[in-house]
Design a protein that fits this description.
Number of strands of chain A: 10
Oligomer: heterodimer
Number of helices of chain A: 11
Strand content of chain B: 15-25%
Distance between the termini of chain B: 48 Å
Order of helices and strands of chain B: HHEHEHEEEHHEEEEEEEHH
Largest sheet of chain B: 7 strands, mixed
Number of helices of chain B: 8
Strand order of the largest sheet of chain B: 1-9-8-5-4-2-3
Structural class of chain A: alpha/beta
Shape of chain B: globular
Largest interface: A-B, 24 and 16 residues
Order of helices and strands of chain A: HEEEHEEHEHHHHEHEHEEHH
Helix content of chain B: 25-40%
Radius of gyration of chain B: 20 Å
Helix content of chain A: 40-55%
């Protein structure tokens, strides 16, 4: 059932042929003589979720950091369809503009919630930070949207004044998601969002993310090594190996009929319970 | 004899020149923290090494110097810094705010309004208002340069969430001339409205090697929320010695039975009012 849903969405996006939200052209990033990622190009359309899978060291996090502006790529363009000025290359964009994007239209969910949260600040303050960063100056209103967002990620509103250090790993990750989505971004970067969580918590988190992505019409790029995550969330899939994209296509197409030897290995490596 | 061996105001002329450059830059960019090559001073960090260096760079032989520590002229820090400049610069010193041309202060702004011919020098322990929220210096500099001050409000948000009101009562962050967010040094927030004044205000942080400034008549706004506006609060009492109800007060425990008195923290201002005939709750008993 999920499979038909995914391909339908992808098809609809193709038929309407809107402008891509993110257009990546020929990205290359090297660390000295070592290639982080190279020759990566793809388009991401509004409402689409793209998965990037590959083994450790295959360059998927490098790619994600280049796209999100955390790393400067050596070559290539990342064209983002900004609200005000249409497609802009975020690589050559000035730093203030890029930072503005990253706290309004973009969101970044780190693998380790400690990287994305302020551990010394209460849950409410964590969610409210992005609002205050874009100019919200009414305590009552900030508090209200913090409460609302904690509810949407299934954190009890009695925990609003607790620090994230008092939260479980799954709650921290949900808090991180709430903190990122509160300003209504259009593009979410996720780096192993379910890494380090036990399977039942993972399942809840995936369910939650699937709901939020659909409800808010988010576009997302999800980096993971967990094929189950992309199977559930991603419409399209890119498989990376040694810094190159070796296969790309609709998620179920790639997973059910892998063409490249590495993808075949990857798919057959999944343990069946 | 060793007194004569020092250059005027202790520091050598090249050092004073370097500090003056930093001061001029600070005045040109109100609220911006200018790095400077802070020197070792003959006192421990935390005792006003930054303020002393700024004062040394500002003093001329014709200046009259005053030092206040928490409002008082007669506490250790104030007395020793005053003596330091009496010995090394031979400048006249005073305890009267109106007579001083250079006033070095720790944690207070004098109650009496200052004039255009005066310089107020603050001792600053931690110049970076964002420090306890963002430990990385590279990041706080970037936040200043890009005017990303949302984090400052996170601190105020946390205050309200925890205490029901903005509980920050000293070192209350301000925005200077609509641009830089600045730590006004640990003055009580009661003093924040006084930061818009006719005198030049210079801030020196010795250990942190930063100088910043507020030029005269510069707009200084205390940060707040729309529904939790800034409130320059003070103890809700009149002064027990001079009866003033508009000054910042110290609470002093006077016996073991819970007795307490409230007195002006600005000793010079309180003494002036008493000399002018103002009396408080406890002053008659003293006279009797």
């Amino acid at each position: 059932m999920t499979e038909t849903m995914h391909s339908e969405v992808a098809h609809r996006a193709d038929e309407r042929a809107p402008a891509p939200l993110l257009s990546v052209r020929d990205i290359r990033k090297t660390y000295g003589s070592y290639v982080g990622c190279t020759d990566v190009s793809f388009d991401l359309y509004p409402g689409e979720v793209m998965g990037i899978v590959g083994e450790s060291g295959s360059g998927k996090s490098t790619l994600l950091n280049c796209l999100a502006g955390h790393l400067a790529p050596d070559r290539g363009e990342v064209l983002f369809d900004t609200r005000a000025e249409g497609p802009r290359d975020t690589v050559t964009m000035s730093e203030p503009e890029r930072r503005m994007l990253s706290r309004t239209d973009w969101a970044f969910v780190h693998q380790n919630p400690r990287d994305g949260l302020r551990m010394g600040v209460s849950a409410g303050g964590n969610v409210g930070e992005r609002l205050m960063a874009v100019g919200a100056r009414n305590y009552g209103a900030i508090r209200e949207s913090a409460t609302d967002w904690l509810g949407r990620v299934e954190i009890a509103d009695t925990r609003i004044d607790d620090r994230p250090s008092a939260f479980s790993g799954g709650m921290q990750q949900r808090l991180q998601i709430a903190r990122n989505l509160v300003t209504g971004p259009r593009l979410v970067f996720m780096d192993e969002p379910t890494g380090g969580l036990d399977v039942s918590v993972q399942a809840r988190l995936l369910d939650l993310m699937r709901g939020l992505v659909r409800e808010m019409g988010l576009s997302a790029i999800i980096v993971t090594h967990d094929l189950a995550v992309v199977r559930l969330l991603a419409h399209r899939l890119m498989v990376m190996k040694s810094g190159h994209v070796v296969e790309a296509g609709l998620t179920d197409q790639v997973l059910d009929d892998p063409q490249h030897a590495y993808t075949q290995l990857l798919v057959s490596s999944v343990l069946q319970v | 004899m060793t007194d004569q061996a020092y250059n005027f105001a202790y520091l050598d002329e090249q050092t004073k020149r370097m500090i003056r450059r930093a001061i001029l830059k600070g005045v040109a960019i109100p609220g911006y923290q200018v790095p400077f090559a802070s020197r070792e001073m003959p006192m421990p960090y935390g005792w006003g090494t930054g303020g002393v260096q700024v004062s040394a760079a500002c003093l001329t032989p014709s200046d009259t110097f005053k030092v206040i520590d928490q409002g008082a002229d007669d506490t250790t820090n104030a007395v020793s810094i005053r003596k330091f400049f009496e010995r090394t610069a031979q400048v006249a010193t005073t305890e009267h705010t109106a007579e001083a041309t250079v006033i070095q202060t720790r944690h207070r702004i004098p109650e009496a309004p200052l004039g255009e011919d005066q310089i107020l020098v603050y001792q600053v322990p931690i110049p970076e208002p964002l420090r306890f929220l963002e430990p990385r210096e590279t990041e706080t500099r970037k936040m200043h340069s890009l005017e990303e001050y949302g984090l400052m409000h996170v601190k105020l948000y946390e205050d309200i969430a925890r205490h029901g009101h903005i509980a920050t009562s000293y070192a209350y962050p301000v925005k200077v001339e609509g641009r830089y967010v600045m730590d006004p040094s640990p003055i009580p927030k009661f003093d924040n409205p006084k930061l818009e004044m006719a005198a030049i205000q210079l801030f020196g942080a010795g250990r942190e090697q930063r100088i910043y400034a507020i030029p005269p008549y510069t707009r200084v706004v205390s940060l707040d929320f729309e529904d939790h506006p800034f409130d320059p609060s003070k103890a809700d009492h009149p002064c027990d010695l001079c009866g003033a109800d508009h000054t910042y007060l110290d609470e002093v425990i006077v016996d073991d039975a819970g007795g307490r008195m409230f007195v002006c923290s600005d000793t010079d201002y309180c003494a002036g009012r008493q000399a002018a005939g103002h009396r408080g709750r406890l002053s008659e008993e003293d006279a009797a």
